[in-house]
């Protein structure tokens, strides 16, 4: 049986609102345990045990409605160890809505996804996966446009570090948009990792915008020839 824990007394009011209400939510899942933390003032935090993972500390931030240069959704200070005797998975979902900047309806922006961290006492095959989404329709769990997934796979039991950034075009199709990211950690017994992941919507640099524009033109021309 899955156990769902909604943090804070006020949060109980929002149990049925996860899929309908514009709000920031941090969700942690492992095994039969799910913890949901509503954000407040652009922040959400959790410290404790989730399933087989101990030492969990998550600090999540959002700058919704955004600034003239950036819409931001970030999960950081994830520091966890698998205390079970076998392989276990922890899934962390962060979501927020009602971003109105940067840009305006019809603008071509950049969705950027960045991850960095360390992994230790792991075994080959242990993985950290991070993926970012943006939704011009402002859906509570953004799924329309994506950057990633970014996958780091351990190849030894020594301390290893990883860092990666990817970008993709994002078209503002409405007055407001939403962001989401998902971090999935799969670790063998005793392994631990420290992670930070950032989802950003940015105003593209002129060179980047030109490259994206040329790619779109090339795709249209190729389709016409076909």
What does this protein look like?
The chain is mainly beta and 226 residues long. It contains 1 helix and 13 strands, in the order βββββββββββββα. It has one helix at residues 206-225; strands at residues 3-6, 25-30, 33-38, 43-50, 53-62, 70-82, 88-99, 108-120, 127-135, 145-153, 160-171, 177-187, 192-202. A 7-stranded mixed sheet has the order 1-3-2-7-12-9-10, with no helix packed on it. It has a 6-stranded antiparallel sheet with strand order 4-5-6-13-8-11, with no helix packed on it. A hairpin with a 7-residue loop joins strand 5 (53-62) and strand 6 (70-82). The longest helix has 20 residues, at 206-225. The model is unreliable at 9-22 and 218-226 (pLDDT under 50).
Briefly say what this structure is.
With 226 residues, this protein is mainly β. Helices cover 9% and strands 55% of the residues. The strands form two sheets. It has a seven-stranded mixed beta sheet with strand order 1-3-2-7-12-9-10, with no helix packed on it.
């Amino acid at each position: 049986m899955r156990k769902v824990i909604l943090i804070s007394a006020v949060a109980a009011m929002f149990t049925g609102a996860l899929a309908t209400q514009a709000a920031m939510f941090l969700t942690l899942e492992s095994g039969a345990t799910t913890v949901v933390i509503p954000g407040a003032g652009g922040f959400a935090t959790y410290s404790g045990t989730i399933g087989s993972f101990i030492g969990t500390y998550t600090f999540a931030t959002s700058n919704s409605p955004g600034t003239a240069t950036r819409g931001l959704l970030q999960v950081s200070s994830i520091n966890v160890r698998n205390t079970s005797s076998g392989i276990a998975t922890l899934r962390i979902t962060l979501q927020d809505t009602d971003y109105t900047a940067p840009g305006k309806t019809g603008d071509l922006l950049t969705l950027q996804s960045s991850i960095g961290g360390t992994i230790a006492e792991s075994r080959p095959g242990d993985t950290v996966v991070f993926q970012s989404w943006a939704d011009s329709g402002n859906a509570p769990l953004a799924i329309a446009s994506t950057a990633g997934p970014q996958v780091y796979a351990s190849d030894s039991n020594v301390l290893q570090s990883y860092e990666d950034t990817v970008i993709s075009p994002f078209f503002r199709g409405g007055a407001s948009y939403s962001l989401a990211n998902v971090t999935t950690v799969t670790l063998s017994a005793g392994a631990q990792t420290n992670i930070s992941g950032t989802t950003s919507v940015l105003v593209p640099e002129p060179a980047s915008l030109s490259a994206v524009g040329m790619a779109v033109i090339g795709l249209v021309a190729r389709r016409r020839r076909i």
